[in-house]
User: Fold these one by one.
Assistant:
Number 1:
Amino acid sequence: MAIAAAGASYAWAMGLGPPAVARQLAAPEAMLVRALLDIGESRFSSALEQIDNLLASNPNFRLAQLVKGDLLLARSRPINSIGNASGAPSDQVDGLREEARARLARYQIETPHELAPRFLLQMPQKQKYALVLDSSKSTLFVFENTGGAARYVADYYVTIGKNGLEKLRQGDKRTPVGVYHVVSQLPKEKLTDFYGSGAFPINYPNEWDHVRGRDGYGIWLHGTPRDTYSRPPRASDGCIVLANADLDALARKLQIGSTPVVIADALDWAGPGEVEALRTDLLTSIERWRRDWESRNTETYLQNYARKFTSNGMTLAQWSAQKRQVNAAKAWIKVQLTDVSLLLYPGKEEMAVATFEQDYASSNLSNRMKKRQYWIREGGKWRIVYEGAA
Amino acid sequence: MSRLQPAALGAALLALALQWGLAFADTYDDASRLFKQGNHAAALEKIEAAIAANPRDARARFLKGLILTEQNKPNDAIKVFTALTDDYPELPEPYNNLAVLHASQGQYDKARKALEMAIRTHPSYSIAHENLGDVYAKMASEAYDKALQLDRGNAAAQTKLAMIKDLFSSSVVPGKGTSQAGVTEARVAAAATPDANDKKQPSPKPLAPGKAETEAVLAAVMGWAKAWSAKDADAYLAHYAPGFQVPGGEPRAAWEATRRDRITKPKSIEVTVGSPKVSFDTNSRAIVSFRQGYKSDTLNTYGAKTLTLTKNNDRWLIVQERMN
């Protein structure tokens, strides 16, 4: 009687209907989810068995401990929600309830084979993986580069900032939305236990964040302290936090300086045709910019830049003046672009980030650099709104 | 299944009744009387004699377990009850008492297994069900503590499970006021009446003194933090005992003046008490360690603090304060 009531309320508390999609999750999480599903279907002994097995290998899985507490308490008296510890700090219980919801929601994530995330338009051959964070699902997706196309390989439960997304200011405890790259690696030996098995800083604030005057620093992908398997979905100061085992698995796939991390409120799946069309459109625009530059027809070349273009503090007018002067002195220009990465920028504005190796040669100067451009749609055409060294 | 049980129990009762014999019944009754009078040493001596004369006397061995429990020898008592469950697996009472002893030592999983055995032999054994409910609640509380990283300090080993006081007898043994600290509180039980509807008269179940006091001490610490956060210097200083050890040995009045100044000056103060751990030196002296968070408009610090409190006229007051 008491237990049946508990099961019904549990399902209610988590807004849990029957699972639409059953998918394979990694061991500790799969055991937890199976236990939660068991509870939803009033199979309490089986649920407790799952939880006990899970805790035998991961005693620091706090949510599992909480569910174990509920399962045991339900044998002693009726309970009507998740987390019935008397006198417990409510924010901690709420955090674990949020994690339970998130873990269950993750179980229902669909990763359709025929679709790819709209954000990943083109991956250069050298770049093996790309990451997309879907904050609505507390999930970091990993995609593999298979001949330029993104193929889903794994996903992990993650914690983001206490106050959610859209980081604007230092200390706002938010995780930024945008296109970022893993820029370095901090081994666990150099960190306190708080960061768990290691950390991978990303380049927040990126070029576009600087343009918009966003500040703050130190947004990392990192692990979890020893005393807990995971943290609630929203608990960090803005960092992206993974379970240590997950971070270790992910670490093997990261390429410092090149693996992109797209952080969005939701992962937008698209059919191959749609991605293809957008990619072609952008690659054509980039190619036009390259050709216009080589043509030394500066006015045509400048048509590729948006009205609100900036580069290192220069306005479009200042940039134009400088280009007119520099190009006039040249007898010829050759520009070659290789390893082009194209990523769609998450957010309201339609924007894309192109990163590539630029081999520039001219009658009086040659150089080679890694360049990054931010492209927006203006007047029905893709135009560059920021350009600089990456 | 359920039809078989009364028969099984009847057979067991009959077998045991034949074993007792009249001669030993006298010794048993003496021991039982001494036990009820609180004369545990003498009771133990008598019952040892009864057992020596008839090693298979379940009732005598059961009483020996009870005496050892009252003598605060839980490990010896556990041995006695365990042997009884081995020799008479069909009797639920030894399982129940074994469970109570395990629970008193914080061994909830063992307690649970023993109670499940008691219930397996007698599915309608209501005391075992009730005790099992308490054990589950206790295990739940342990799991919650792990989930929420709570350390409830000395709250361990305080259970209120019912110990069965007699085997094969409906006579009621009142819970003595003699139960020592650490020994479980007795909930009066009419034994061997496997009837869900039996009318037990539960004796009052006083809270274990440690738990109520722990809460009182925590309440005092919370009140202190609240007064500080409210910048209420009078209420804050009222939490310090007359005999408070002023840090650095400066005069109390000077310390109070400094505190008043520090408490009233900031525009806002927020003091938090994280993961408090309470332990007791004596019944009226408690030590509370916690993570103190202090946040004002000018300062934001976090550190370990230890407060020592003593009980003065039913109020817990601070006698020593240390940042670790």
Note: The CA atoms of residues 104 and 157 of chain B lie 5 Å apart.
Number 2:
Amino acid sequence: MTTETRPRVAPRRGVANERVPTFVLVLAAFGASIFVIPLVGLLWRAPWSSAWSTLSSDEAMTALRLSLVTSLVSTAIAVIFGVPLAWVQARVAYPGRRIVRAFTLLPMVLPPVVGGIALLLALGKRGLVGQYLDHVGVHLPFHVLGAVAAETFVAMPFLVLTVEAAFRSTDRRFEEAARTLGASRLSVFRRVTLPAIRPSLIAGAVLCWARALGEFGATITFAGNTQGKTQTLPLFVYVKLEEGNTDAAIVLSLLLLVISLVVLVSLRDRWLSAL
Amino acid sequence: MSVDATVKVAVGAFVLDAELEAADGEMVAVLGPNGAGKTTLLRALAGLVPIDEGSISIGDTIVDAPAHGRFVVPERRSVGVVFQNYLLFEHLSALDNVAFGLRERGVGRVAARTRARALLRAVGVDVREAARPRELSGGQAQRVALARALAIEPELLLLDEPLAALDVQTRVDTRRQLRAMLQDFAGARILVTHDPVDALALADRIVILEGGRVVQTGTPDEVTTRPRSQYVAELVGVNLYRGHADGVEVHIGSAVVTAAEPAAGEVITIIPPNAVVLHREQPHGSARNAWRGRVREVEHLGTRGRVRVRVDGPLAIVAEVTPAAVRDLELAEGCDVWAAVKATEVETFPV
């Protein structure tokens, strides 16, 4: 009475051996060019000689620093609140769970400017919640905290989605094994569940951070565009372009492109496969 | 009694309604087919599923008694579990897997590792301490899982199909080692299995579970020689005996059975019922095993068109013969017969 692995019919996946029809190749090549051409254009027009002086200018550094701080803070907020949210969504069956899921994922498809207006109406001075915040002296709109709020709103779904999927796919029997060994539920979470979802948590946090770093629409709508306070790097790029300072806009765009590429490459294989 | 459980629990449409006792030092096998409720019973004992009615006590502690609103969570029960597929934590080394329970009980890292190291040695796992579970062989993983469960010094040890994940050869070796390793364990042991050979080889007492109910309880001998239901007969219907081998000769009680392959020491002997040939006169010919006996029961197996004949004698044996043979031999309860088996049909497993 042995446990045998039954022969199964292996599904056919992956690379096709047959010759690919020409028209498919043409369409695919055009599809790829949609991504490639704009980025090549960026590199082609890059004013390499003035790149360093543009990057090291005070206002660029201010915008960069602000971007890093706000995006990291909003990522931290997303982790602190998003992981418990993802856990509840994955593990607790309650009425309205699907509605909550729809809400948490909505910012991924919502035009960011709509998000910004929504934030304004909710957290603005006369807003649904904002009026109470105003009483205690907290003003989010046109404040650095507003930039953080806008980035969090737009970027957090990436974390929640990734981590929730991970919670769903973990084998709960390991958690049961840990409990029989004397681990409390909190301890099980810390010592068994969290290590099991670690790759997804990292992937989710990095995606969230990258999205927060690039946030434009919700930020400019809700937090405004005050230099040194809410003018993050993407906003700064936009302003430079409006001023006719194309070179500066290109150089700073390249900086954002490099950051995005680093994120993508570092997540490749190991972590993105967890998605 | 170290463990005393009266369990009633519904899992969907399935209802487990069973009683189970196990004394300190005793090994009780819960034997039954898939879906009989074995794992549910084990989960109830471990506290992973609360029972609906009844009570469970482990040692002096009542751990589950819904009528009194009492339920002790798994982490506060003195129960070690060796899970099916072992469930070793992949992100921890073999050593830290064993140390896990001690760490959770507040033992410091160094002390826990020292103790874990000793336990790994005791179960005979000789691997790098840093080895991850996926680097272990099936037999090693099983022993690490056992060491992990024993590390917390539980009053009750639960083993869920501990041998099912192993290949045939490893199974035989591991079964024997498991027996030896559990020798020193003072608490009660409950083994859940669907394999009668495991139950017979390891258990002091067998509890047979069918459709969520206990259909028979007894020593391995009682269960194999006096199966109380059709199901039990089918389950243990392969004629299982525990005996002592000396070369090809296996001594089972007062009977001697000749096997094809030589062995030494304690063995389990298996004789398939359809290999047993019945005669009215002493047989002559190639069969080297023949015993005189008396027919105790003749039972028609409608589904298979076969007849099961239970023969008492120096070796109680079950034969499965054709209806034609029953007619020709005029077999009936109480008549004298000879039961013969070829040595090549006799299988032995070292215990």
Note: The domain at 52-274 of chain A is CATH 1.10.3720.10 (MetI-like fold).
